[in-house]
Amino acid sequence: MLDDSYKGRNCLIFGANSLVGRGIGGFLIQNHANLGLIDLDSYKDAKLAENLKNHQTKAIYRTVASDDRSSFEKVVEEIDSYLGSIDYLICSYYLEEARTKTDPGDLSIETWDRLFKEWVHNYFLVMRAVVALMIQKEGGRVIFVNTTTGYTGEGEGEGELTADGSIHENACSSAITGMMTSIARDIIPQGVSVNGIALGPNYKNDLERILWATHLWLSGMGEYSCAQILRLY
Amino acid sequence: MEKPLKGKVTLVTGATGGIGTKICEKFAELGSFVYLCDVQGTTDLANLINKEYKEPRSKPAPCDISRKQDVKGMYRQISDERGGVDILINNAAVYGPLETHHFPQISYEDFVNTVNIDLSGAVHCTLMALPYMKEKKWGKIIFSAAPLSSSGIPCPYLAGKAGFVGLTKYLSRKYSDFGIHTFALVLRHVGTPMIRRVIKSRGRDIEEGLKKMNENALTGRMITPEGVAEIYAYFSLSTSPQLSGITLLSDGGITYLK
Fold first, then answer.
1. A209 touching B (Cβ < 8 Å)
2. A181 located within any domain
3. Contacts of A223 in chain B (CB under 8 A)
């Protein structure tokens, strides 16, 4: 059912080095989309780089400085200019480290500040920079990648209590869910759809479902879903 | 190129409705043989579908799904002819009484008649489909559902359609290991004849009513029957063994964001 639906489409992935970002990037490249890739670190995915060479698509990779508004704006403008527009935004930054178990007693204020900035602040900054451009043009589609814990405030099975050692994940991930819901209400009437994917504990082995959900949201089939999060237990 | 659902048998309830018709057409297009289940005649729809293809892709399955014996009879027919149902799409629904539908004025009979079709009918069809799906270790069960939120939806309709949310989760938990996967699309307004009848029953101009409904959605328009059929097809074609128990709210943001 993919046809050529991604041919000529441009996608910006924030968190291009994350497992999910790499997976979605590879999927989009195989389906002929052009990519703008952003992360805080230098480009790590040699396989994707090889893929890029094999497909006749455009791609650009840039690093951004965390919690730095001007850095995000500059990089997004550069990518928008290179690709011609940004049709899709995937926010898939920073999941692996946030899922490391951390008890409140072991979570220093400094670590919390860094996690909060890198995850929540940066999601806000990339959204702000990209969505403004989408609204100016013909709209767009945004996916927030999040965790099930953040979506429900609970554990990762239905009705389970919060998992041990997830204070930082609960707080950041729930904050992202709330932010996404509020942003959705503002920007959907302006032609930008916003939906999410909440990952379960075994998400590293679950790329097939993640890509299924990604295509659902990007293809237009999810156009009437507003701030909905597909939970992948 | 071989059609992706070739060899699969699909049963669609509420086949002649606005959404049902598009689902039947879509699944036939994907190569499935489609049984068209409805209390109303479906011969015209079957003819319309079959003339598009070299071989028959559909057949009427007249049935009142609120009656257990009728459902059993329909499944016997399908079993004799095609073995069983691989994909069940529980789409049939009645809105219930258009005039007296507020609580407590609504009559018990009207309540029962509505939920017997909207919820019990789907349970009848699902229970009859499960043994064959278990044997084949493959099955997709889909529900056209409504959100767990009132917002003016009459109680018998909502009792029936919101019941699918729980049913989807339960069946997934119980039967995923047998290769049977469930999905519910949670809908509010869809551009169908039913929604036009509802607007008319409230004494409103239909076009004005539709315009107002569209304005109520964040998206500024409502999902189409073709859009619903597309999503059902996408789920049915998924190959992930873990993709089950999903409820997808596709309401234009009306339920929780407006």
1. yes
2. yes
3. 219, 223, 227
pLDDT band for position A152 (cuts 50, 70, 90) = low
Question: If you average pLDDT over every residue of chain A, what do you get?
Answer: 86
| Element of type H or E holding B63 | none
- In this structure, how many other beta carbons lie within 10 angstroms of the beta carbon of residue B130? 20
The ipTM assigned to this model is 0.86
Q: In this structure, is residue A3 part of a structural domain?
A: no
Q: What is the pTM of this model?
A: 0.90
Q: Given phi > 0 = left and psi -120 to 50 = alpha, else beta, which region is A8? A: left
Task: State the pLDDT confidence band at A1, using cuts at 50, 70 and 90.
Answer: low
- A226–B227: do the CB atoms touch at under 8 Å? no
Output the domain CATH number for residue A163.
3.40.50.720
Q: What is the mean pLDDT of residues B174-191?
A: 93
Quick one: pLDDT at residue B105? 84
In the predicted model, what is the mean pLDDT of residues A20-37? 92
Domains of chain B as residue ranges with CATH: 9-250 (3.40.50.720)
Terminal alpha carbon distance of chain A: 25
Q: Please give the average per-residue pLDDT across B134-161, as a whole number.
A: 88
As a whole number of angstroms, the distance between CA A94 and CA A118 comes to: 8
CA B25 – CA B21 distance, rounded (Å): 6
Q: What total of structural domains would you count in chain A?
A: 1
Confidence band (pLDDT; 50, 70, 90) for A45? low
Query: Smallest Cα–Cα separation from A210: which of A25, A34, A15?
Result: A25
A1 part of a folded domain: no
Shortest CA gap B233–chain A (Å): 9
Which of B176, B242, B255 to mutate to test binding with chain A, by most A CBs within 10 Å of its CB?
A: B242
Running DSSP on this structure, what letter comes out for residue B106?
S
A90 in a structural domain: yes
Which of these ranges, A216-220, B48-52, B65-69, B254-258, has the smallest mean pLDDT?
B254-258
Among A185, A224, A231, the residue to mutate for chain B (most B Cβ within 10 A): A224
Q: Is B206 on the interface with A (CB under 8 A)?
A: no
Q: How far is B89 from chain A (nearest CA, A)?
A: 18
Q: For residue A129, give its domain range.
A: 10-232
